[in-house]
Write a structure and sequence with these properties.
about 290 residues, mainly beta, Immunoglobulin-like, six-stranded mixed beta sheet, five-stranded mixed beta sheet, flat, binds calcium ion
Length: about 290
């Protein structure tokens, strides 16, 4: 009897995450912006609940504030540790010359106060950001090209493809669009930039509302190399679009017996019933 209880205790403890391995989860860890373009976001959650009374702070910091700045620190408690919160990345402006596409890093420092401060010094991935130059070059911008979510059954995300702003095409520019992901649908198979639309056109991405509990999944929309009579734009390959399709389905709650004794879940309910019946539940509680 005593040996069985000890065995159960060890099994249940070993199912818990190791204390030192808690981390803040950052998604995605790669972002692309262009000078003066729209903001993008990444999500942060904690992989396990902080202790009672503990406040966990995730502080983002840009290594190159001329190319991109970040929004304020995020805080989490046991009440909301698994609800995504977002850091907004604002790209640096154009007008700094033809400085090429500049990559920098956003670090995420984790600190904790209160409770057992179990998250103090916990790890969090950095985010690699590339801010594309638009000065003095013929370029096609895609906005946003990353750092956004579409939710199953939710609103579509509008993507803007534009030429310029420094160099204006002399002819129409067409960009074909495609995706192999079953997670999303596109409003069009191509966009064409013309004098009539100011060489700027949009398409939308909608999450397919599947009924599966399939989690939040990354998808890619490929923007093909441009087709144009203007040689400055013909063959220019705009950055592809990478987003996250957010799941809106949830699992039904597990059976009560399996929920209250998780370490025995693998044995199956029939085996559990036999075990408890043979031992007598009242004796287990002594
Ligand atoms: Ca720049
Ligand atoms: Ca520039
Ligand atoms: Ca789903
Ligand atoms: Ca899905």
């Amino acid at each position: 009897m005593r040996a069985l209880k000890l065995g159960l205790g060890i099994a249940m403890c070993s199912a818990l995450p190791a204390h030192a391995l808690v981390q803040a989860i950052v998604t995605p860890t790669t972002l692309t912006t262009f000078e003066g373009g729209t903001t993008v976001q990444y999500a942060v959650t904690l992989d396990d609940s902080p202790s009672v009374g503990e406040t966990v702070t995730v502080t983002p910091s840009s290594t190159d504030v001329t190319e991109g700045t970040v929004s304020a620190a995020l805080t989490f408690t046991a009440a909301d540790f698994d609800v995504p919160k977002y850091v907004t990345v604002t790209p640096g402006a154009s007008g700094d010359g033809n400085d090429g596409d500049v990559s920098y890093t956003v670090t995420n420092i984790v600190t904790a106060t209160g409770g057992t401060a179990s998250y103090n010094g916990a790890s969090a991935n950095s985010v690699s950001v590339t801010n594309q130059n638009v000065d003095g070059v013929a370029t096609l911008t895609v906005s946003p090209s990353s750092g956004f979510r579409v939710i199953e059954g939710g609103a579509a995300q509008t993507i803007t493809v534009s030429a310029g702003p420094d160099v204006t095409p002399t002819n129409d520019v067409t960009v074909n669009l495609s995706t192999v992901s079953g997670e999303v649908a596109l409003s069009a198979a191509s966009v064409t930039l013309t004098a009539g639309n100011g060489y700027s056109a949009t398409f939308t991405i909608t999450a397919n509302d599947d009924a599966a509990v399939d989690g939040d999944l990354s998808f890619t929309v490929v923007t093909a190399a441009a087709d144009s009579v203007d040689p400055a734009f013909d063959g220019f390959d705009p950055v592809d679009v990478v987003g996250i399709a957010e799941d809106d389905d949830t699992l039904p709650p597990p059976p009560v017996n399996a929920q209250s004794i998780p370490a025995l879940g693998g044995l199956g309910l029939a085996a559990l019933g036999l075990l408890l019946g043979g031992l007598g539940v009242t004796r287990l509680r002594k």
